[in-house]
């Protein structure tokens, strides 16, 4: 008989606790919607996915070049930094240098391809 009473108390207590947790969760969602937390989280996720590509300014800063630097000089600086970090074992910096070169290729290489096509028309 005592076991039956204890079992009923446990079941009743867990039901009350479950309802309280569910109600608190619903209220937290409502409060989050009112304060704009959900929108803020969505904006942060959007920024994180968009910021995977390196900006041209950051790429120039990493390689130590400016907008007037020739592609040959950029390539030399890339090779120097890449090889130096390969020897020292800094994979992170090596990766940043590679991404910087890739970002600057988008700006410089098409200009030089058009320039070569002008010199050597087919």
For the biggest sheet, the summary is: none
N to C succession of SSEs: HHHHH
The helix count comes to: 5
Class by SSE composition: mainly alpha
Cα radius of gyration in angstroms:
30 Å
Tertiary shape: elongated
Count of all domains: 2
Q: Residue-averaged pLDDT, rounded?
A: 78
Tally of strands: 0
Strand content: under 5%
Contiguous low-pLDDT stretches (5 residues minimum) are none
N-to-C terminal Cα separation, in Å?
99 Å
Helix content: over 70%
Identify the notable features of this structure and list them briefly.
84% helix; J_dom_sf; 122 residues; mainly alpha; mitochondrion; 2 domains; elongated; transport; Tim16; mitochondrion inner membrane
Give a verbal description of the structure:
The protein is an all-alpha fold and 122 residues long. The protein has 2 domains: 2-50; 56-119. The chain is 84% helix and 0% strand. It contains 5 helices and no strands. The protein has helices spanning 2-35, 37-50, 56-63, 71-88, 91-119. Helix 3 (56-63) packs across helix 5 (91-119) and helix 4 (71-88) packs antiparallel against helix 5 (91-119). The chain is elongated, with a radius of gyration of 30 Å. The model has no long low-confidence stretch (mean pLDDT 78). InterPro entries: J_dom_sf, Tim16. Keywords: Membrane, Mitochondrion, Mitochondrion inner membrane, Protein transport, Signal, Translocation, Transport. Belongs to the TIM16/PAM16 family.
Describe the secondary-structure layout.
Blueprint (H helix, E strand, L loop, with lengths): L1 H34 L1 H14 L5 H8 L7 H18 L2 H29 L3
Helix pairs in contact: 3-5, 4-5
GO cellular component, one term: TIM23 mitochondrial import inner membrane translocase complex
Membrane topology: Peripheral membrane protein
Subcellular location: Mitochondrion inner membrane
């Amino acid at each position: 008989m005592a076991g039956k009473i204890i079992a009923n108390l446990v079941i009743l207590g867990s039901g009350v606790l479950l309802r309280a947790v569910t109600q608190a969760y619903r209220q937290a969602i409502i409060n989050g919607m009112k304060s704009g937390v959900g929108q803020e989280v969505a904006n942060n996720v959007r920024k994180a996915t968009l910021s995977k590509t390196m900006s041209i300014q950051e790429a120039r800063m990493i390689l130590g070049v400016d907008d007037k630097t020739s592609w040959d000089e950029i390539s030399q600086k890339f090779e120097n930094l890449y090889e130096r970090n390969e020897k020292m074992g800094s994979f992170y910096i090596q990766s940043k240098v590679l991404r910087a070169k890739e970002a600057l290729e988008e700006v410089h290489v098409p200009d030089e391809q058009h320039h070569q096509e002008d010199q050597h028309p087919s």
